[in-house]
Design goal:
Elements (H helix, E strand, L loop, with lengths): L1 H9 L5 E3 L6 E5 L3 E5 L5 H6 L4 E4 L2 H14 L3 E3 L3 H7 L1
Antiparallel strand pairs: 1-5, 2-3, 3-4
Length: 89
């Protein structure tokens, strides 16, 4: 996950990694666009894996996913920017 999201986290993106394993991914962009699926959100998955995701602007679905996302945060840890990881060693 750090390989894909690390550069974005280093630029200020807030990302969290779910501690318990689940293959499905949940995406939320600016509390407007939501998505769910098994796609790993990288070029390799898009071109080589037979996985998918669906993205939606539906307000009711967004509210449901936001509630579940909040519950999932209990078992998640924030991804730390690389510069902070180096400094803390």
């Amino acid at each position: 996950m750090r390989y894909v999201l690390g550069p974005l986290v280093d630029q200020g993106l807030h990302a969290y990694q779910y501690v318990n394993y689940i293959h499905a991914k949940q995406f939320m962009f600016d509390r407007l666009l939501v998505g769910i699926g098994s796609w790993n959100f990288d070029v390799y998955s898009a071109e080589n894996n037979h996985e998918c995701a669906i993205f939606c602007l539906d307000e009711s679905l967004r509210q449901q996913m936001e509630r579940q996302f909040t519950l999932d945060m209990i078992n998640s840890v924030p991804m730390i920017p690389e510069r902070q990881l180096i400094r803390s060693k």
